Each structure stands twice: as structure tokens, then as C-alpha cells.
């Protein structure tokens, strides 16, 4: 009686794979979408936004002014620097620099738009004040006498560089244009006719008015003069601000949402003052003075004005992150040269190209056909990275600087490392005696876990650097994280499907073509040794 043989346990093979043409098609479709957006949206320019060190920039120096004429404290300057940096991040002005230099803040932004740097340095003291009176602005002489009118002319602006003189000018303007609650308003009504609301006129009271007193202020466009009551809501009570458009006219507005006591006070105030005007003042100028039509019970309130899209976004940004603890006087914008950065870029690109060529030559000599697949994968990865950087420059203002280029080069090198991990796993499987075709899915099953783990560690490191770092280091971390994500995408959607297709090709499966001849020989010798070892065992059992 013969005992039936027990079925021997077999190593389960990898699960059935998706046809390789599907992920390849998905990646090529994604690449087509990216470049469709590059060429057919946003002006169609395929050029990324460059940072200060590559394209140059504009520098504006902000000189701090205190009400009492004393030098600002380090705490005030640091707080102002932090708020301006928050505004930079809110605007997406990547690559900008904010530096404390003595009693000054130096803001440098990419490009040649000095207005953007001045906007970032806006004091942004917002108050909501009731309107007591409004009259059209009266044109004033070009150089009024400072003693009679209290308005500084060109000589007053020059003397504003002296702190003591600046403090005296602020006090004089408060005497002429402000009065405590309950005071006689006749002098303020008379002052309204003497207000110089020309946009080029220097106003020492800008951002320095007392919010708990009446105020004579100009509209932002200089067409009207307002007599305003003491503030009823402080800009520090704003929880959020965003730019939008009206549904009827489509004009740009700023939507603000109040918090704490202001959120409860505003509906009550608007219900009790229907038909009256209420002014939103920003740095002592009336931005908007709408008439209350009905009680406002919604969480958001609209600030309307003659805003462009950029004006609305800038105002929402400065209101969102709060007012500066100091008022600043901005200098004229000066251009920052990019000569040094361009030389460094040229040297870096040459070094990167030499290194990339060396890697590709080594891959071709060592892996042969697999080296060609490495080259194709890197080219497709580079094309995807470039297109995404162009789009990020349009959508979030991301600028590419030297640190960012370093992150890109390191990330592409990490992508090549993932290829090496995959190919070596295939070779390990072939050393076990398997053919190229059967080794590919098994090698991929073990390689992808290593690729996931390695890229996860790199992405976490890039994220930590981005959160903790400042300045150009954040650009390095951002591009490193971006290329890490794309490494996974390219390996899964491009490299692996290409290797699968190669393993199914009779020509590419030849050891002399795919560069796996030595491994195939090791596998052949191992199979022969196993067969030779089994022959004596068989003969011995036959005896």
C-alpha cells in the first residue's frame, strides 16, 4: 500500500498585476494636463518665477517712527518683522526677505514691483468709526505754510527724518484734527476745509491717530473729507479677512469677520443706526464709508471701495495678520542685482549636468537596458517637476532660487536611488534561479516597501525643515518634498511598468541586452548545481 504524497507547500507568487500600459497612460495623461495648463492658462509662458538671487529684486527700507520720537524697542521691531513675514506668506511672495537693520526693516521682494514691498510694510491700523460729517475735499496750494495750516509741505517731509521733529508734527496734527469725546466740534468742521487730501501729500498723522477721539480724515482717493467719531470696533477684533467680488456688479470687495465682543456688538449697532454712514479707516484714511441699509446679522461684513483685484487681496492680507506695532516711512525702491546669483546658477547647472551625465553613463554601463529605462524615467520626472514649478509660480507665487534648485537636484538623485533599489531586488530574485520575467514582479513586491519607507523618511525630514526653517532654506525643503512625492509617482507609474514591458520582450530579455548576463550565469550555475546534487540522491534511493 502506498502512502499518498502530501502536497508540498509552495511560495505564493505576487498578486496579479495591473496591465503596465494603464499606469503609463495615466502618467502621460497627467503630464499632458500639466503642460496644457502651462501653455493655455496664465499667459502661456513656460518660464518659472525666479527668486531674488536669480532674477534680482526690489528693496525698500522702512524707517520706524514712534509717537514720542524715541527709538523703537527690539521687541517692537521683532514683532513687526514677524507680522510682515506672515503677510509675505499670506501673499505667496515666496523668496522675499525681511531683515532688521538697526531701527529699520529692509524688505526685498523678487521682481521690480516696489509697490508690493511698500504694501507689506503698511501699518494697517483699521478702525470702524461713525461718520459725523462729510464734505468734498478742497484743493490746497502746492506748498502751504506749515505754521498756519499745520500741514507739512516738502520741507516738512524732509525734516521728518528727525525723530523729535516727527513727534512734534504728530502732536500738532492731533491738536488740529482730533478732539476728545464731548468736545466742541466747530474747530474740526473748520479744519475740514483746510485739509490737503492730495495723494502726494505727506501726512505725519498717518497710522498715529488716537482711536478714542474724533478725527478729521481724507478718503483714500482724496476726493472727500470726513469728520469721524471715536472708534467703535478695533481692527484687532478681526478674526479673518478675504478678497471677493459682489454678486451684482462684480466689483472687488474685502470681506471681514469679527470676533469676540465685536461679533456681538456689530449686529446691534447696525440695527440701531440704519441710514447712517459708518467709515472703515485704514492708517488714518477712509477706505470705505457705506450707508447702513439694514441690520447686518451675517458673520461677514463687506468693505467696499474702488478696489482692483490686487488692492483687495493686499488689504485682506494686511488685515488678516494684524497691524504693525510701529508706523514706518518707506524709502524709494532700489533694484537688487542678480549677477552673482546667475553666475552661481550657471556653475550649479554645469555641475548638475556633469553629475547627471556621469550617473547615466554608469547606469548604461552597469545596467544597460535598465539604464536606458532609468534615463527615460528621469527625463519624464524632470519634465513633470518643471511643469509643476511653473504652475506653482502662477498659483501661489512660488519662486525658484538657488536653494530650491539644490533641493531639486538632490530629489532627482533620490529618484535614481529608488531605481537602483528596484533593479537590485530583481537581480536578487534572479540569483535564486528565476528568469528575468518571473523575477520582475517578485523583485517589485519587495522593492516597493523599501521605496515607500525611504521616501516617507525623506518627506518627513523635508516637512520638518520647511516648518522650522526660514528664508531660502524653506525653498530647499519645499522642492525636496515635491521631488520626493514625484519620485514615488514616477517609480510606480513609469519605471515599474517599463520594466514589466521589457521583461515581456524576447529581445530585451536577452542577458546581453538587459545587462543581467552575469546574474543569469550565476542562476544557471546554481540550477546545475542543484540538479547535480539531486542525481546522487535519486541513485541512492533506487538502490
TrEMBL record:
Cell location: Cell membrane
Gene3D superfamilies: 3.30.1360.200, 3.30.70.3220, Multidrug efflux transporter AcrB transmembrane domain
Topological category with respect to the lipid bilayer: Multi-pass membrane protein
TM spans (from-to): 21-40, 347-365, 372-396, 402-423, 451-470, 476-502
Residues of the Protein translocase subunit SecDF P1 domain: 77-132
Region (Disordered): 134-164
Keywords: Cell membrane, Membrane, Protein transport, Translocation, Transmembrane, Transmembrane helix, Transport
Ranges of residues in domain SecDF P1 head subdomain: 221-325
Record-linked HAMAP family: SecD_B (MF_01463_B)
Name of the protein described by the UniProt record: Protein translocase subunit SecD
Organism (species): Gordonia prachuapensis
Amino acid at each position: 500500500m502506498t502512502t499518498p504524497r502530501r502536497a508540498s507547500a509552495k511560495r505564493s507568487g505576487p498578486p496579479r498585476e495591473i496591465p503596465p500600459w494603464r499606469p503609463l497612460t495615466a502618467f502621460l495623461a497627467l503630464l499632458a494636463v500639466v503642460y496644457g495648463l502651462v501653455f493655455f492658462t496664465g499667459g502661456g509662458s513656460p518660464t518659472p518665477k525666479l527668486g531674488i538671487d536669480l532674477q534680482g529684486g526690489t528693496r525698500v527700507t522702512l524707517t520706524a517712527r514712534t509717537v514720542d520720537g524715541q527709538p523703537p524697542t527690539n521687541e517692537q521691531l521683532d514683532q513687526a518683522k514677524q507680522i510682515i513675514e506672515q503677510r509675505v506668506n499670506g501673499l505667496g511672495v515666496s523668496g522675499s526677505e525681511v531683515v532688521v537693520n538697526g531701527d529699520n526693516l529692509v524688505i526685498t521682494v523678487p521682481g521690480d514691483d516696489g509697490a508690493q514691498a511698500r504694501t507689506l510694510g503698511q501699518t494697517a491700523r483699521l478702525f470702524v468709526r461713525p461718520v459725523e460729517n462729510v464734505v468734498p475735499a478742497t484743493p490746497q496750494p502746492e506748498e502751504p505754510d506749515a505754521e498756519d495750516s499745520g500741514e507739512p509741505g516738502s520741507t516738512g517731509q524732509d525734516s521728518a527724518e528727525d525723530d523729535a521733529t516727527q513727534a512734534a508734527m504728530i502732536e500738532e496734527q492731533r491738536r488740529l484734527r482730533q478732539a476728545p469725546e464731548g468736545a466742541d466740534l466747530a474747530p474740526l468742521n473748520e479744519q475740514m476745509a483746510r485739509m490737503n487730501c492730495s495723494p502726494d501729500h505727506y501726512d505725519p498723522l498717518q497710522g498715529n491717530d488716537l482711536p478714542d477721539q474724533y478725527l478729521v480724515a481724507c478718503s483714500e482717493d482724496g476726493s472727500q473729507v470726513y469728520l469721524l467719531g471715536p472708534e467703535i470696533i478695533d481692527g484687532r477684533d478681526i478674526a479673518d479677512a478675504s478678497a471677493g467680488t459682489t454678486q451684482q456688479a462684480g466689483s472687488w470687495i474685502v470681506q471681514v469677520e469679527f470676533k469676540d465682543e465685536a461679533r456681538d456688538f456689530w449686529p446691534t449697532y447696525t440695527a440701531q443706526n440704519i441710514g447712517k454712514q459708518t467709515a472703515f479707516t485704514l492708517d488714518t484714511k477712509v477706505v470705505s464709508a457705506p450707508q447702513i441699509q439694514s441690520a447686518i446679522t451675517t458673520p461677514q461684513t463687506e468693505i467696499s471701495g474702488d478696489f482692483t483685484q490686487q488692492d483687495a487681496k493686499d488689504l485682506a492680507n494686511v488685515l488678516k495678520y494684524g497691524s504693525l506695532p510701529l508706523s514706518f516711512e518707506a524709502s524709494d525702491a532700489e533694484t537688487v542685482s542678480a549677477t552673482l546669483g546667475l553666475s552661481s546658477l550657471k556653475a550649479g547647472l554645469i555641475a548638475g549636468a556633469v553629475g547627471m551625465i556621469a550617473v547615466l553613463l554608469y547606469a548604461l554601463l552597469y545596467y544597460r537596458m535598465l539604464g536606458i529605462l532609468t534615463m527615460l524615467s528621469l527625463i519624464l520626472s524632470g519634465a513633470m517637476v518643471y511643469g509643476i514649478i511653473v504652475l506653482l509660480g502662477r498659483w501661489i507665487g512660488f519662486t525658484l532660487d538657488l536653494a530650491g534648485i539644490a533641493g531639486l537636484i538632490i530629489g532627482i538623485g533620490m529618484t535614481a536611488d529608488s531605481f537602483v533599489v528596484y533593479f537590485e531586488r530583481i537581480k536578487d530574485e534572479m540569483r535564486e534561479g528565476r528568469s528575468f520575467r518571473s523575477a520582475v514582479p517578485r523583485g517589485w513586491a519587495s522593492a516597493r516597501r523599501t521605496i515607500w519607507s525611504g521616501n516617507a523618511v525623506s518627506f518627513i525630514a523635508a516637512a520638518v525643515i520647511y516648518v522650522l526653517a526660514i528664508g531660502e532654506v524653506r525653498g530647499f525643503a519645499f522642492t525636496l518634498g515635491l521631488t520626493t512625492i514625484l519620485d514615488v509617482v514616477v517609480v510606480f507609474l513609469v519605471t515599474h511598468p517599463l520594466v514589466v514591458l521589457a521583461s515581456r520582450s524576447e529581445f530585451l530579455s536577452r542577458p546581453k541586452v538587459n545587462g543581467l548576463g552575469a546574474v543569469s550565469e550565476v542562476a544557471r550555475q546554481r540550477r546545475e548545481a542543484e540538479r547535480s546534487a539531486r542525481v546522487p540522491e535519486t541513485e541512492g534511493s533506487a538502490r
